[in-house]
Each structure stands twice: as structure tokens, then as C-alpha cells.
Design goal:
The chain is an all-alpha fold and 91 residues long. Helices cover 75% and strands 0% of the residues. The longest helix is centred in the N-terminal third of the chain and has 30 residues, at 8-37.
């Protein structure tokens, strides 16, 4: 009996399975390599996190002051309330 050729759908499904398998294997390999390299990382790189945290904190303060300014502009806050809350936000 002659062997049937796979249909286009079967070929596409087989290709999808092979691609997913290759992607998963490559991802697992990359994760293992990253985990193996992590202990050998330079300890001097740790202080880099501090400026990022400081930047996030300053962005939060700016957002609070902008919100207070909007409330002040809409008339929900008096000048005195706005000044007091702004000083409190700046800390």
C-alpha cells in the first residue's frame, strides 16, 4: 500500500509542536545558564538598585504633588491646605 503524504494541516501542527519544544528547551537552557552565572555576578552592581528606588520614590512624590495641585486648582483645597499637604508629601 502506498504511503500517504501528510496534509497541510498535519504539517503545520507538526511544525508548531517542534517549534514549541525548541523554544521551551532553549528557554530552560537560558534560565539555567542565568542561574549558574548569578552567584558569579559582580557585587559592585548592587548599588545600582538604590538610584532606581530613589527615582521611583521621587516619581511618587511628584505624582502626589501634581494630584494636590489639581485639587487646589479645582478649588477643593485652600492655599493653606495645599501648602501643608505639599510639605507633608515632600517629607
Amino acid at each position: 500500500m502506498p504511503r500517504r503524504r501528510p496534509t497541510l494541516l498535519q504539517t503545520a501542527a507538526r511544525t508548531a509542536v517542534i517549534t514549541k519544544t525548541a523554544t521551551t528547551v532553549a528557554g530552560n537552557s537560558a534560565q539555567k545558564q542565568a542561574a549558574a552565572a548569578a552567584p558569579a555576578a559582580d557585587p559592585a552592581a548592587a548599588p545600582v538598585a538604590a538610584p532606581v528606588a530613589a527615582s521611583a520614590a521621587s516619581d511618587d512624590v511628584v505624582a502626589k504633588i501634581e494630584r494636590l495641585a489639581a485639587l487646589h486648582a479645582s478649588g477643593a483645597l485652600t492655599d493653606e491646605e495645599f501648602a501643608a499637604l505639599k510639605l507633608q508629601a515632600i517629607g
